[in-house]
Amino acid sequence: MTLKQRLPLLRWSFIRMGIGARHFSRTGQWGDGREAAAAAYVEAHARRGDLDDAIATLDKFAYEKSFLINIGDEKGALLDAAVTRANPRLALELGTYCGYGAMRIARAAPDARVFSVEFSPANAELARRVWTHAGVADRITCVVGTISDGGRTLDALAASGFATGGLDFLFLDHAKDAYLPDLQSLLERGWLHRGSIVVADNVKLPGSPRYLAYMRERRGAHWDTVEHKTHAEYQTLLPDLVLESKYLGDD
Ligand SMILES: C[S@@+](CC[C@H](N)C(=O)[O-])C[C@H]1O[C@@H](n2cnc3c(N)ncnc32)[C@H](O)[C@@H]1O
Q: InterPro entries given for it (predicted)?
């Protein structure tokens, strides 16, 4: 890893995210075309039908071309291990972006059906292209919407087979202030079961304080949480926290 890769502040594509922040909150993209470039890069450089290579190629793009907000390789290893522990038949990700996290889930759980909810139709389209190239488009489904859109997305998931106690694994990686209310909406539907695992990225950076407080308050009662100290994606300067929480029921 070069100095530039270790220290994100030396990378223009990282600094550029400050300028693109408003664009990102409206569109889910940073406004300089990096997400479309990443999908095109996978199509041009990763071996078709090779899931490992698609994941590695997105990592390479994020390190060498333009910074991406995928969970990344370091935190991705934590995600993989949690998925393996959950051994899911049905997994849900909130926040698809370019499709990277969903591919890691699909790789760690080869028999699972994986759903990913994304509010940006443009990101959904790019992710589907990446999944098609990687050969996993038949196992990963992107639903365009949000959990808080008045039941539309929740109903679409229900129509796709989400039912009481059927959701084994949940990955929260979307709007940080939506982690807790969206988890509560999923609990209200009764889809999680005792033993379901929930992984939350970016709990320290940019941070999801209400979610963190909720999991700490309920430790041992309704949730059993491990706090993984790690780094934000694609660099080693900025610390981050990934929470892995096992549902103990009745919350
Ligand atoms: C950090 S990225 C997700 C990265 C992805 N999980 C991965 O590891 O490859 C966050 C994504 O969440 C999307 N997003 C933001 N708010 C959302 C919401 N309320 N519901 C669904 N998606 C949302 C953004 O458009 C963006 O694509």
A: SAM-dependent_MTases_sf, SAM_O-MeTrfase
